[in-house]
Specification:
CATH architecture of the largest domain: Up-down Bundle
Number of strands: 0
Number of domains: 2
Oligomer: single chain
CATH topology of the largest domain: Growth Hormone, Chain: A
Length: 413
Amino acid sequence: MSSYRSADPIRTYYVYNAAWSFLAALSFTLSLVYYVRDAGLDPLQMVLVGTTLELTCFLFEIPTGIVADLYSRRLSIVIGFVLIGAGLLLQGLVPAFLAILAAQVLWGVGYTFTSGADQAWITDEIGTERAGRVFVRAQQFELAAQIAGTVTAGALGLISLPLPMVLSGAGTMLLGLLLALFMREQNFHRTPREERETFRQMAETFMHGLAVARRRPVVRTLVVISLIAGLSSEAFDRLWTVKLLTFDFPNLFGTSDPALWFTALALAGTVLSLGASLLLNRFSAQRLQASHPTGILATLAALDVLGMFLFAFAGHFWLALAALWLRQIADTVTSPIHSAWLNRHVDSRSRATVISMVSQANAIGQVVGGPPLGALGRTSLRGALLASALIWLPIPALYLRLKEARTTEEQVV
């Protein structure tokens, strides 16, 4: 088998990332519609699906990382894609709640096998100096493949909602097997014990993050914002599909099939978000790159919560779409501004701890906040959506409070 493993690593990285981006879009574009229409999941079950996936990824990130650190990046990636494919295949073939939960565990564990292993592999093979350019180029291939996968999912979904999911699952398993044949790994070295991630290190990072947050008002505020966002978003991100499917869809190209509409919504949302990002970069570049972009972050957070409230109360299809797009645009524009600001103003010694702490706070928020709001959604879908919006409501004010903490922040950073 080793004779097959002679493919150029950069080309392999591009092809595999594009293929996975296509397959992921093929599966996930209509998955939420499938959960409601074919599997008959109620609001609580919809949220529990997301919570199960989030919790699985959180718990298995460390043990699965041991394979990539000790044995082989390639082996870890291959195992990951076979498990992800099996999960996607299971949920597409068996439209039942328990089967879909089991599928989340399978593909969640699989994701943790691939998480970080692919970037570590290509960096080992080509070196850190070339890796940066490769990552940027790979992202371009991924975007093009994602658009193609979204369109393909819509076309196949008109035939059968589970069809794109089943084909994606089979394709992902095949991708893993092809990588086992062709993926070259010549520069792998075991990660030293002191550099490996462990549960003890995770606990130490969490405790150190709490200590940093107690000392530093800016870090404390960012952790609180991340926790609140997690508490709010898990339910809303699952339940908006349930509400949208209560509307009568207008005819589009001679059909009102939700498969076509959700594909169009995904594409339109991507285009609108890209357009908003380009416009802001063109006309407000100085504000976006400001040392303290708290004002624009607060504005975007306010637009986010406005979109959530509008969607919860929307009684008309087009108003609901406008609210969803408003929220998607706000989220898309916020992400790079927030990341750049955080990395720019946290010193290198604390950067990894702060980023990890913010990420952990969001995951904890999703696991804790999702199920209660999902249970509320069983009796009142609007109530659950409104509760999500109310939980998000303090975030704009928290960003504005950071302006008052600038003096302290200069001492921190």
